[in-house]
Amino acid sequence: MNSFKKFIFQLQEITNLIISAFLGVFKKPHYLVDLIRQMDIIGVGSLPIVLLTGFFTGGVLILQTYPTFQYYSIQSTVGRTVATSLIRELGPVLTALMVSGRIGSAISAELGSMVVSQQIDAMRALGTDPMRKLVAPRLLALIFMLPFLTVAADIFGIIGGGLVATGIFNMDYNAYITSVRSGISTADIIGGIVKPLVFGLIIGSISCYKGLTTEGGTVGVGRSTTNSVVLASIWVIIFDFFLSRAINTVLDIKYI
Amino acid sequence: MLPQTDAETVSTDENLEQELEPTDLEDAVDEPERVTPAIEFRDVHLSFDDKKVLDNVSFIVRRGETKIILGRSGGGKSTTIRLILGLLKPDSGQILIDGEDITGYSEVKMMDVRKKIGMVFQEGALFDSLSVYDNVAYRLHEQGKPKEEVEHEVQRMLQFVDLEDAIDKMPAELSGGMLRRVGIARALVGDPSIVLFDEPTAGLDPPTARTICELAIKLRDIQDVSSIFVTHELKNIEYLSSEFAVVDENGQVVFEMEGEKMCLINTEIVMLKQGKIIFTGKNEEFFGSDDPYIKKFVRGR
């Protein structure tokens, strides 16, 4: 099978996986406990690394931009720059990349190990559909929790930026807050929440697919884990570009 | 089905099922519903890429019968039982479970068929995030059974495999033999009428392997379960085809040898060679076969 055919085949398989996972949600038995457990692992479990990433990203943005802004005497708008870049781009993308590394790899490794130790076959033999029991809760938890994690990362980024601006560059606290507030529009917030919804779907579907198609024992588990993180990260970045373009057009966001 | 003592009733014809018409069989038994085979393969073919895995495979497993499937590694043994569970689909041919053609069944429809089949995997395939109790109770939890019923059933099954003490342990704390036995207990929940064993004794020490075979014999003779026992270990054939289980006057299950004047009719051997059936028959015929492939398999050279 050449590379293009393989790509189309995988795309079809991933689409089927997403459809059967979503359709399965409406059938009994409902795996609510599994969904809540996954939301806890993905949401609460990823919170520390996402907050740290957001905090230091906001801080370093101010650290690098403030002197330049000061040179052009527009340092009062530095808060606006940080808020816009975090909410529109860095918050959603960095959170998705961190979650892809932490959760995407874990999902792929867990499902892959279950495949090679015949636990998936055992599950099917015992009358349970792995799409509903394993894939659907992980996919839904990622789609549901990623926007919350992104908002948390945005807030901590703005706080981090504020601490650097006031602590290192002696910027007035109120001036920073005012600048941040003037930079955030409703359209930015909507865009910043739509993106993680799509990223959650990308990370969840790729990592579940790679995990469930693991072949070749423990070496295969390692391979599918690496592949899932790499592929999910690449697709997050590619989709980010097209999503940004679409959101800016649909919500009429100005490039200022 | 208990072992027959009358040697005359035992046919040595290895193709008994092919020669007897269903009507003949109907006359031969008192319970007509037992005529329908538990499992039936009709001209099943399966290939992976260009490699033929099963080539024109046909056999039946009657109710209360154990079919031992033998063959070298990669010969299509495990594939056969994956087909029965619907984990794989054949390229052509038919597979019938209790007379129901499952060949074209969707995954959703197969879920109902799987309820009457128990499967014991090679390494146990226990869910490593669940305790022994939760593993055995898995099917009942999925069906939303009440807690008391689940507890009672789990206790009963763990008692059957003699592992009541391990109820709270995690799979990582169990030995290889214990893992298989928990796997058997999990497969038997819900009293399936068909049990499939996929090399359940591979890599186990002889006494533990013997324990697993005893469980299979008990299922066959006491519980009247139809089973397929995939193996490549000759010791397993010896146990399964020459011993039977009975309940003695004290209510204990004991194992007895078939003896010279008796022959177990409820255990048969099917030998696969590169996806083709090359032998079907009793253990005596198998060990006395002149086929060079079987001779080599038995003697190792």
Write structural notes for this entry.
The complex is a heterodimer of chains A (about 260) and B (about 300). Chain A has one domain. Chain A has 8 helices and no strands. In chain A, helix 7 runs antiparallel to helix 8. Chain A has about 260 residues and is an all-alpha fold. Chain B is of the alpha/beta class and about 300 residues long. In chain B, strand 7, helix 8 and strand 8 form a beta-alpha-beta unit. In chain B, helix 5 crosses helix 6, helix 5 runs parallel beside helix 7 and helix 8 runs parallel beside helix 9. The longest helix of chain B has 16 residues. The relative contact order of chain B is 0.17. At the A-B interface, helix 4 of A face helix 4 and helix 5 of B.
Oligomeric composition of the shown chains:
heterodimer
Percent helix of chain A? over 70%
- Mind describing the biggest β-sheet of chain B? 6 strands, mixed
Structural classification of chain A: mainly alpha
What's the end-to-end separation of chain B, in Å?
37 Å
**How much strand of chain B?**
15-25%
The strand count of chain A comes to: 0
Question: Rg of chain B, please?
Answer: 19 Å
User: Strands of the biggest beta sheet of chain B: in what spatial order?
Assistant: 6-7-8-3-11-12
